[in-house]
Amino acid sequence: MSEQKRTALSDQIMEEYPSLEGFLHDLHTDLTSGSWDLVSYSFQTGFEKMWDVVKADQTDILVRPLLSLWRQSIELTVKSSILLLEGEFKGKAGHNLLVLFEQLKESANDKGLNVDNEITRKVSALFKNAQSVDPWADRFRYPTDKKGNKHVGIKVDLDELFQAHWMMVTWCEGVVVELREEFGIGLP
Question: Measured between alpha carbons, how far is 59 from 175 in angstroms, rounded to an integer?
């Protein structure tokens, strides 16, 4: 969106004072509504588009929103994959990426897919790293933790972030595809 358009919208606000009822409405034809898979895909796409913007931007001001999209995209993808295989979560799903990843691996193994391989170990390391840098799913969204302690700044290699995202979501989705297509295992 151009600066001129943002200025025009800001000027219009002063005249009209919008309310939430004015611009947020229920939409009963939203294809993503209720679909873990489509919401996951929308966050993957959002991450990729935001990555393009951050990559072109010469400041780090948009890194935290990008990292929030990155983490949310990964979480939604692993949850969507679990639900496609199992139909439900074992216990409370939570936000722990490593716990979710382990649940997905266990589900794949239980259904006959051997995931004890080098690729899985590499992806597992990515999940461990992602969970360790943001253990409470708040580091990228808030300047402090729940106790008010300042989060340490973060430096990110954008290319490696993109590659990690691709590997993590592709692995999760690939498990579902492989079980469905190669093993003929019916999904819930």
Answer: 37
Contact 95, 141 (CB under 8 A): no
Chain centre to alpha carbon of residue 71: 4
Tokens (6 digits) for 43 = 């966050």
Q: 161 and 50 in contact (C-beta within 8 Å)?
A: no
Q: How far apart are CA 95 and CA 131, in angstroms?
A: 9
Full-model pTM: 0.87
- List the chain pLDDT tens, one digit each, 188 residues: 588 888 887 777 766 665 555 667 788 888 889 999 999 999 999 999 999 999 999 889 999 999 999 999 999 999 999 999 999 998 888 999 999 999 999 999 999 999 999 999 999 999 999 999 999 999 999 999 999 999 999 999 999 999 999 999 999 999 999 998 888 876 66
Q: Which residues contact 147 (CB under 8 A, 6 or more apart)?
A: none
| Single-letter amino acid, residue 30 | D
> For the domain that residue 169 is a member of, what is the CATH number?
1.20.120
Note whether residue 15 is domain-resident: no
How far is it, in rounded angstroms, from Cα 166 to Cα 164? 5
- Indicate the number of domains in the chain: 1
Question: Cβ contacts of residue 172 below 8 Å, gap of 6+?
Answer: 77, 78, 80, 81, 101, 104
